Amino acid sequence: FASDHNVFFEFHLSYCVVKDILTREIMLRGHIHDGFYYFSLVSPDPSIAAPSIYNTSLHARNDGYDVFALWHQ
């Protein structure tokens, strides 16, 4: 794979990267899970939006509404 695509692998404790052999640009990023590396694409174009994380919050209801009972009916 590496010689066919002119890339090299760089391994770290909890992740690895696949880099272009000439530019050293990261082409793929892998994260270890259950002993295997899973890869996600890295966009080379900064105008393409990366996935975002949004913070949300939950508020407790004090009106006697039993959400647990609703979910387990």
Binned, the helix content reads 10-25%
Oligomer: single chain
What is Rg? 21 Å
What's the SSE pattern? HEEEEH
SSE arrangement:
Blueprint: H1 2-5, E1 7-11, E2 15-20, E3 26-33, E4 36-41, H2 67-71
Antiparallel strand pairs: 1-2, 2-3, 3-4
In words, what does this structure look like?
The chain has 73 residues and is mainly beta. The chain has a domain at 1-43. It is 12% helix and 34% strand. The chain has two helices and four strands; from the N terminus they run H-E-E-E-E-H. It has helices spanning 2-5, 67-71, and strands at 7-11, 15-20, 26-33, 36-41. The protein has a four-stranded antiparallel β-sheet. A hairpin with a 5-residue loop joins strand 2 and strand 3 (26-33). The model has no long low-confidence stretch (mean pLDDT 73).
Describe, in short, the structure shown.
12% of the residues lie in helices and 34% in strands. The chain has 2 helices and 4 strands.
Features:
mainly beta, four-stranded antiparallel beta sheet, 2 helices, about 10% helix
